[in-house]
Structures
1.
Amino acid sequence: MDPQIPGTLYVVATPIGNRGDITLRAIETLRAVAWIAAEDTRHSRPLLTHLGIATPLVALHEHNEAAAAGGLVERLCQGEAGALISDAGTPLVSDPGYRLVAAAREAGVRVTPLPGPCAAIAALSVAGLPSDRFVFEGFLPSKPGARRARLAELAAEPRTLIFYEAPHRLLGTLGDMRTAFGDARAAVLARELTKHFETVLDAPLAELVQRVADDSDQQRGECVLLVAGNADPAAAREAEGRRLYDLLRTELPPSRAARLAARYTGASRKTLYG
Ligand code: SAM
């Protein structure tokens, strides 16, 4: 096992459900460092107690990170070793920590990862969708209008898409995905990974929406949504170009509407307005 190096910030992944998924290096490091910066100290304390770790916790969440990062970097510069954890999974992945890591690196502090669970990667590893290239989109905007706009922008994306979603928004988001990507696009809902009620459903979007609507259990717990990339991105770009052209055409001369729609969507201007 590695000796802890003074003045180092360890970025430590913690379990996303099953406590057995903590690594041996994580346990040893969390025990040895001077402090652990945690997103929610009340949430992390039970895990640390379970592991027999009594290291002092410091709160580092999205509301205090900008202010707290400076003091922690100072302590690292004075030679203390510290660790960063989040409530679950890998810090910085839809979780706080980016400012602390950036500030530490800026100050010349050694920052080293202790890799482990991440819901996006765990879901990808069992989804059965192409995994050679993928896009992590994190959480979609919570407002329906902004969410639909973001999904429309992603309709032509050829790589597998990975989203995090809150259970109460799941059905609405799946419906919007069906509209943006079409009934037939392959999708996977990975729920409660590593936990007792883990399920991984794969189906075309139209069927997946129906299965989730029919089974309220599928609308509970934590989930990752994955959608296959567009197999024909050129056609999707043309369709998006046509949609935008029709919209702009109500306000602008056809040639100008076509130029703008083509520039924005990547569709061919000639196809829109020959
Ligand atoms: N940093 C974490 C990681 O590495 O995955 C993600 C934190 S983000 C605030 C929490 C989101 O991750 C949840 O809303 C859910 O979308 C996803 N997630 C976390 N744990 C999960 C699990 N056990 N099963 C499915 N999704 C999970």
2.
Amino acid sequence: MSKKKTPSNSGGSASRRDSKPAIGGELHQAAGGDHPPLTTNQGVALSDNQNSLKANPLGPTLLEDFILREKVTSFDHERIPERIVHARGTGAHGFFELSASLKKYTTARILTEVGEKTPVFTRISTVAGGAGSVDTPRDVRGFAVKFYTKEGNWDLVGNNVPVFFIQDAIKFPDLIHAVKMEPDRAFPQSATAHDTFWDFISLTPESMHMVMWIMSDRTIPRSLRMIEGFGVHSFRLINDRGGSTFVKFHWRPKLGLQSTIWDETVKISGADQDFHRRDMFEAISSGNFPEWEFAVQLFTEEEADKFPFDHLDPTKLIPEELVPLKVIGRMVLDRWPDNFFAETEQVAYCPANIVPGIDFSNDPLLQGRLFSYLDTQLSRLGSPNFHQIPINAPKCPFGNQQRDGHMQMGQPSGRVSYEPNTLSDSSPRETPASGFRSLAATETGGKGRVRAESFADHYSQARQFYLSQTAYEQAHIASALVFELSKVEHVHVREAIVGHLRHIEEDLAKRVAAGLGFNKLPTKPEAAAPVDERKPSPALQIIGKMKDTLMGRAIGILIADGSDGAVIKRIKKAATDAGASVKIVAPKVGGAKLADGSILTADGQLAGMPSVIFDAVAVILSDEGRKELSNESAAIDFVRDAFGHLKAIAVDTGGEALLKKAGVGHDAGVVDAGDKDSFIAAAKTRQWSREKFVRTLA
Ligand code: HDE
């Protein structure tokens, strides 16, 4: 006989007290207490959200249960297609403020009204991985900004690298198919280190310049707040006389550029899959608003004709030494979204969203993008009315005679839905004087599926990039190539890439070949154009663009029972005064009992807060604490990794003993915890000179 059960109206957890009413809940505020009633989407209040409707306590669930069906149906449809590229992203609201007018060059009010603050929504993303992939693969970062201007939305949809892999939009699906997980095995998720990617690259020499950038530490950033952004393509600015000037757009992080070390990045991926998203969230929540300078490179058609490359080729950049950057404003991100899905997921960027006074160039990649984004939004968001979703809607008045369609939220009135008409005085009309106009450019030449001859040089800027790097950065590029190609199973693909490298720099090719264990250098493929020697451009380095600051950086202090509270306090104060955030790491999250008997609460437990998530560390341990941690591999890894990742380490006697146990050596970056000034100075940089003692680079 089955055990008799008493029917119950309860079962789940008590309902949570939300600060905001459920949708429609405000209609029922009076229903009871200060909780709005939980309702169906039709506004019917629920008496029980814990149990579905059953024929009897142990009987089948009834189809009649419209509350269950509605709830589960809604849940079943929660996901929309993720972006085919740039699926993983982090977004935030903020503003753009213009500091220098470009009135001479453009009529766009966002670029002419000095002091005006324009709202923005910015989304920074990785490219290859799915929406749930880690934040820190080696990958380009997308840098997309939607400016809600008074004259309509302007989207600057760029990357953190100023060039791209390919010259023509028709190759984009091939490139992305090659970089994404391989279709038969469905891995690797978000990594370029596999056969199909390098196979495609080996047959696409135009990508070699971008390859230099992605193999550099640019693609393993420390924080999304420490990356540059680039519009990549040339655009045009159009002034009130119809005159056109070419422009390239740049974002420069206020915190300077900073990257991680490859081994560190790999470990961060395990320690915190959301490392970049969390960093951005914590920075904004604590009022440390991420900020970028906005700068332009302006040049005329005549100047462009004299460049030793074609600026319409998106695999080329314009060195700052050739056309200097002019800073014209800043962007501050000061508000985290209320809801990830509604804002960061549904935001729909499109390079075709421009405003009067800005126009496109003939860059063939840009031309293809002008089609792709609107098309992809239709499939992701399901209706041509996606511009009505609050995150996508312009903040200036807008209206036209476009009508109906799925999820139409507007309710137009009146008889007229066409233009021109004589029946309505208030329906929208053209504004010939101020409305958007394309430049009346003259196009000449024969039609055809062709590649411009001026796009033929694939190696000169790749060489210039490589030669512009410091020796440390060159070693990282060579080592990244060895790492990636070592993951490629097909030997002929490895060889083909090294063959291309020979055009860039013979020494680089030799280093990579040695790292791969080649007996001889592979043959050089024929180059479509001779390699031209260009002056190095130091602006292309990362190390040169690191700032001597602890602003936005994080310091971890490892403690245990018996640690000296006064030393901890002094280091913490010095670090916070220098702008860093400080976290206490201890064997137990409840904290440690310090030498004076007080308890210091920890921000994280040792096993869950390794040193890879900090920029520098201090290890303050009593003799008792040192003994406790000496047999703890997480503590040994803490100091070993901090040293291996070229970080400053401050130690007292107990900390010093832990270093010894871990086999960690001494150099200028390992300082006495009593000497806080030396620690702060060392923490502001990486100990580059240590690198040759801790790893073999190519
Ligand atoms: Fe994109 N790209 N892309 N892209 N792209 C998309 O649009 C595409 C390119 C970039 O945070 C998609 O809404 C083509 C260059 C960013 O939501 C899609 C080509 C640059 C984002 C698309 C390119 C970018 C995207 C996928 C070659 C740097 C994320 C989802 C012609 C200048 C925006 C979506 C966000 C997203 C197509 C090349 C940047 C499929 C066809 C070059 C930052 O439409």
